[in-house]
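pls design
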């Protein structure tokens, strides 16, 4: 099964979760970072269900939204609520997990499409070393991973020393 088909499976699951909870969603893939925005349904039935599900001290604004995305370098999705939005932890986890899967398959589809259809200008594939912006005086023969591992393997500092000396 290819990436597009796998993406569609998770998108259908997301649609089912949204239908069950009177929500609407937008998978924003035309800008960086790719994100998922979920809002309460704006229809009359959705507004009534918001009132029915409202518990004491809980309120969800009709204009509220949830945005799930990956911050640069993060391994787990980040989420932000706008306005007053009450949502169960279970529903939030479901939405976050569905977004993580959709995000993964979207990126796999995107990369495959770009590479197979030669969509890069001049055929230049980005390189991590070039994008890392390492300082010019960074020694080429020095391995930062080895240095990091040495620091990790060092014994714990003396108890009377709050911070290890460098």
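designed seq:
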């Amino acid at each position: 099964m290819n990436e597009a088909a796998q993406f569609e499976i998770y998108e259908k699951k997301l649609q089912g979760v949204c239908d069950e909870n009177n929500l609407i969603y937008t998978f924003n893939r035309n800008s960086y970072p790719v994100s998922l925005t979920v809002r309460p349904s704006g229809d009359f039935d959705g507004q009534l269900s918001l009132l029915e599900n409202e518990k004491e001290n809980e309120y969800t604004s009709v204009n509220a939204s949830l945005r799930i995305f990956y911050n640069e370098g993060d391994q787990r999705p980040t989420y932000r609520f706008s306005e007053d939005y009450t949502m169960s932890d279970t529903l939030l986890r479901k939405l976050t997990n569905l977004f993580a899967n959709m995000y993964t398959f979207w990126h796999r589809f995107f990369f495959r499409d770009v590479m197979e259809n030669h969509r890069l200008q001049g055929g230049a594939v980005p390189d991590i070393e070039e994008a890392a912006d390492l300082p010019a005086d960074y020694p080429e023969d020095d391995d930062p991973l080895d240095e990091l591992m040495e620091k990790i393997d060092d014994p714990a500092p003396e108890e009377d020393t709050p911070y290890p000396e460098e």
